[in-house]
């Protein structure tokens, strides 16, 4: 899969007025990114499974935000969430894929369920969100996707 032209130099982007969707916005790194983007005057869509937590964060960052329930391990949930986002915002300029789990245990313990869940959330969840956001970004001929997982 070719993500972008490796020879193209990244340009500094004005964030003011852009719309950013941040998964993992209910805690940790995603929450910090969401707050920073809001401080840069982005419209911020806070996405995760915990809508109560998202609504609390929304109170902190103000009116240029939206809280949306999204389970990245479920295609239907991701599709529904992005449909809701498009009802409120005309464009989606930035997607930050940060939702993830990181079960810490020794390989020798053979926690197969945890290994498979990690792929389901971190890898397939990232792909589900990219899949959902690409039509809008292609139509507007612009967009930035930041993936926290390698
Ligand atoms: N912190 C580190 O040292 C570190 C190091 C390397 C990589 N990372 C990666 O960076 C990302 C952010 O790390 P963090 O420390 O901020 O994580 P964190 O505090 O453990 O939070 C995990 C986040 O992922 C969300 N999440 C988990 N499963 C989800 C699902 N099925 N659908 C939607 N959201 C889901 C959780 O939200 P809900 O529970 O509300 O859904 C929560 O907001 C993670 O993907 C992690 O794997 C972190």
Quick recap of the structure?
By secondary structure, the protein is α/β, with parallel strands linked by helices.
Task: Outline the structure in words.
The structure is a single chain. The protein is α/β, with parallel strands linked by helices and 150 residues long. It has one domain: 3-Layer(aba) Sandwich (Rossmann fold), CATH 3.40.50.720. The protein contains 4 helices and 5 strands; from the N terminus they run E-H-E-H-E-H-E-H-E. It has a 5-stranded parallel sheet with strand order 3-2-1-4-5, with helices on both faces. Helix 4 links the parallel strand 4 and strand 5. The model has no long low-confidence stretch (mean pLDDT 94). Bound molecules: NADP nicotinamide-adenine-dinucleotide phosphate.
Q: What's the story with the biggest beta sheet?
A: 5 strands, parallel
Overall number of structural domains: 1
Based on helices, strands and strand pairing, what is the structural class? alpha/beta
CATH architecture descriptor name = 3-Layer(aba) Sandwich
Low-confidence stretches: none
Distance between the termini: 13 Å
Strand order of the largest sheet: 3-2-1-4-5
Q: Count the beta strands.
A: 5
Helix share of residues? 40-55%
- Broad shape: globular
Q: Could you name the CATH topology?
A: Rossmann fold
- List SSEs in N-to-C order: EHEHEHEHE
CATH class: Alpha Beta
- The H-level CATH homologous superfamily, spelled out, is NAD(P)-binding Rossmann-like Domain
Topology:
Elements: E1 19-23, H1 28-39, E2 43-48, H2 51-61, E3 65-69, H3 75-88, E4 94-97, H4 112-140, E5 144-147
Parallel strand pairs: 1-2, 1-4, 2-3, 4-5
This protein binds NADP nicotinamide-adenine-dinucleotide phosphate.
């Amino acid at each position: 899969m070719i993500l972008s032209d490796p020879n193209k130099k990244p340009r500094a982007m004005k964030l003011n007025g852009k719309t950013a969707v941040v998964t993992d916005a209910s805690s940790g790194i995603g929450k910090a990114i969401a707050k920073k983007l809001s401080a840069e005057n982005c419209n911020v869509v806070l996405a995760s499974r915990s809508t109560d937590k998202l609504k609390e964060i929304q109170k902190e960052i103000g009116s240029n935000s939206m809280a949306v329930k999204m389970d990245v391990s479920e295609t239907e949930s991701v599709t529904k969430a992005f449909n809701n986002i498009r009802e409120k915002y005309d464009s989606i300029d930035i997607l930050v894929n940060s939702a993830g789990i990181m079960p810490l245990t020794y390989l020798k313990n053979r926690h197969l369920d945890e290994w498979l869940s990690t792929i389901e959330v971190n890898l397939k969840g990232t792909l589900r969100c990219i899949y959902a956001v690409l039509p809008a970004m292609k139509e507007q001929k612009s967009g930035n996707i930041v993936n926290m997982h390698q």
